[in-house]
Amino acid sequence: MEHPVLETRGLTIRFGGHVAVNGVSCAFRPGTLTAIVGPNGAGKTTYFNLISGQLPASEGQVLLFGEDLTRASAPVRTRKGMGRAFQLTNLFPSLTVLENVRLAVQARAGLGLNLVSLWSDHVELLEHAENFLERVALTQRRDTPASELSHGDQRKLEVAILLALEPEVFMFDEPTAGMSVDEVPVILRLIEEIKAQKDKTILLVEHKMDVVRSLADRIIVLHQGELVADGAPAEVIASPVVQEAYLGVTRNG
User: Fold this and answer.
1) What pLDDT, in 10s, does the model give residues 98-107?
2) β-strands 59-64, 6-15 pairing
């Protein structure tokens, strides 16, 4: 049987005496969108950080296409095909919207992060960058420094950068957080488009259960750093363990 695209085996991290993610084993396959849910402090973003390389694991493994990347840096994981959109935007604030995306396009094309590169020689890449801006409805802001964008537009720019990197694994950490109601559909439509390609693997941390219901093929639930449920959305949402973890209902009260 072929390897899953992405797999975590017994993934664990400790901060002092606190175990933030505890022995999480999970496999993710192409063409699927897995929503990762759980109450605040459940370990969702920490789990993302362990997968994408922002945090070193205390124990366990992260495998991409069967290759052990547990000790690999975040940039190496990106080059191998892992793409991450951060809950807090991760942009070059002094560069324009277009320059931010064009750097990602250049990096994907193997040209490095060189802004002085002769862009007249790379018209096709520049058009590529413009296309990603169009997809996130930011064409009119192309010459605006990223630092001057609203929070919602910064999130859209971050998604454009992620699309430009063309990863095999897309990781979205609350992609619609801080967006106005009319901005949210742009991002959800893009995630739906990626999913429709059927060859990409998508992980989504999301608090809004309506978003989870509309997009997810599968839900995994973290609670106090442990994987407590994994399955089809309707079944997971209805399970007592999720009701307890999500609604804060305790067995003794």
Assistant:
1) 999 988 888 8
2) antiparallel
